[in-house]
Specification:
Blueprint (H helix, E strand, L loop, with lengths): L4 E10 L9 E9 L4 E6 L3 H7 L5 H16 L12 H8 L7 E3 L3 E5 L2 H12 L2
Antiparallel strand pairs: 1-2, 1-4, 1-5, 2-3
Helix pairs in contact: 2-3
Length: 127
Amino acid sequence: MQEQHLYEYAVIRVLPVVEREEFLNVGVVLFCKRQKYITVLYQLNEERLGAFSTELDIAQVKKNLESFEKIAMGAANCGPIAQLDIPSRFRWLTAVRSSAIQTSRPHPGMTTDLEQTANRLFTELVL
């Protein structure tokens, strides 16, 4: 029998106009403390975002999502937050914020395959 792993995930959202609180799911961040695992998967659908607002700076959103991914992965050139341990990075990424990129509240789950679960969640919640 394969070992089950407790994980947490959050949905990454873009809010083109923060005040309207309308959002588009663009990715997921999945974390497992025991396995020291974290991953970020995202895809930006510019056409769909354009339906929310024509004033959204897509280039800036892309840079912010890239930074989000680099922080999760602990990139050496991404500042002090990226150098925190994996649980602290996940908590920082999923903290409540008022910006164009936000996350849902974290949700728990159990899986035997973290990568497959991240891909499944990405497909179900984003694509």
